Amino acid sequence: MAQRGPESVDVAKRRALTDRCWGVPFAVASSAFLLVMVSSCYGYLAVLFMEKYAINHEQVYRISSALIIAHSSAGILVSQLRRKLSVFQISLIGGFLASAGLVASAFAPSVGRMTFTFGVVYGTGIGIALLGLSLYLLIYFEEYRGTATAIL
C-alpha cells in the first residue's frame, strides 16, 4: 500500500472540494460589494471633498485618478506577493489596506493626504483584495468557473 504524504492529502481534499463550494462565490461577491461600495459613489464624495477642502474639480479628481491608478496597478504587486504568500493572506492584506485607507482618509487634514490615503492606500487595498478574491474562485472551480465568476 502506498503511503500518502501531507501533499497528497491536500490534493485529495482540493479535488473533493472543486466545483462544490458554492458558498465561496457568494462570500466573494459579498466581500467585493463591501470593498467597492465607497468608491462606487465617488461622485457624491467628490462634492463633499470640494466643500470640505474648498477645492475645484481638477483637484478633486486627482484623488479619483490616484484611486484608479492604484487599483489598476495592484496586479503587479499581487504577482509578486503570490510567490511568497497564500491567496488567503493576500486577500487579508488587501482588505486591511482598504480599511486602513478609509479610516485614515476620515482624518486627512489636506487634499494631499486625502489623495494618498483614499486614492493610493484604499485603491491599492481594493485592487489587491479583488484580485485575491478572484483567485479564490479560480482555485475552487474548474468546470463551473464561468458560473462562479459571474456571481462575483
Helical segment count: 8
Q: What would you call the structural class? A: mainly alpha
The span between the termini is 43 Å
The count of DSSP E runs of length 2 or more, i.e. the number of strands, is: 0
- Tell me the series of helices and strands, N- to C-terminal: HHHHHHHH
What does this molecule look like?
By secondary structure, the protein is mainly alpha-helical. It has one domain. It is built from 8 helices and no strands. Helix 5 (74-81) crosses helix 7 and helix 6 (87-106) packs antiparallel against helix 7. The chain is elongated and about 60 Å long. The chain starts with 5 loop residues before the first helix and ends with a helix. The mean pLDDT is 88. InterPro entries: MFS_trans_sf, Proton-linked_MCT. It comes from Amblyomma americanum. Keywords: Membrane, Transmembrane, Transmembrane helix. One of its GO terms (molecular function) is monocarboxylic acid transmembrane transporter activity. The chain crosses the membrane at residues 21-47, 59-78, 90-108, 120-141.
